[in-house]
Amino acid sequence: MPLLMPTPRAEPGHGDKRRLAVIWLAVALALAGLAAWSAIGPGSYGQSRAGCVTVTIPSSMGGALLHECGSRARHLCQRAVGRRDRLSLLIRPSCRGLR
């Protein structure tokens, strides 16, 4: 009859629980570090400067970045100055440093 009895389950020991806690702590710290880095770092399109214009505009998926440099940025700003539509009004403040 002893062969028909189910085998007892092995319960995790203190070492296994500690290892699992360390793994969860490492994952939580990595995610917190990633969140802090993404919140603090502006990225390459942070602001309009050095002959470039960066504007966040409304889009079908929420918002989009409009980024132009050099002659394309000057052309974009010239078009925005001559118009009174909503997009032009959003572009104008970023063009102030370009002039």
Briefly say what this structure is.
With 99 residues, the protein is of the alpha+beta class. The protein contains three helices and two strands. It has two domains: 30 residues; 44 residues, no CATH class.
Helicity range of the residues?
40-55%
Instruction: Report the end-to-end length measured between terminal Cα atoms.
Output: 93 Å
The major β-sheet equals: 2 strands, antiparallel
What is the oligomeric state here? single chain
Total beta-strand segments: 2
Number of helices: 3
Number of domains: 2
Name the overall outline.
Answer: rod-shaped
What is the strand arrangement across the widest sheet? Answer: 1-2
Strand content: 15-25%
Helix and strand succession? HEEHH
Q: Give the uncertain stretches in residue-range form.
A: none
Secondary-structure-based class equals alpha+beta
Average pLDDT for all residues: 82
How big is the Rg? 28 Å
Describe this structure in words.
This protein folds into 2 domains: 14-43; 52-95, no CATH class. The protein has a two-stranded antiparallel sheet. It is built from 3 helices and 2 strands, in the order αββαα. The mean pLDDT is 82. The chain starts with 13 loop residues before the first helix and ends with a helix. With 99 residues, it is an alpha+beta fold. 48% of the residues lie in helices and 16% in strands.
